[in-house]
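Record 1 of the preview.
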Amino acid sequence: MAAPTKAEREACWGARDEFWQCLDSHGDDAAKCEKLRRAFESRCPQQWVKHFDKRRDFLKYKKKLETEGYSPPEAAGKA
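->
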């Protein structure tokens, strides 16, 4: 598979940004952003879609840690 051209990369990133913006404005309700998700998937290589999905999850987790801090889970079977 050939590397995406500059125009294809920019189209992919634009579709990703629109989709993420929709998710942000609808509280991560993917059903309301289904059309943008399909556009994102059609404009980006499948591996990129997987990477960007993981990246969004990581960024949300990182933001949560920064705002709420880390609280270790209670050990279930403390001796």
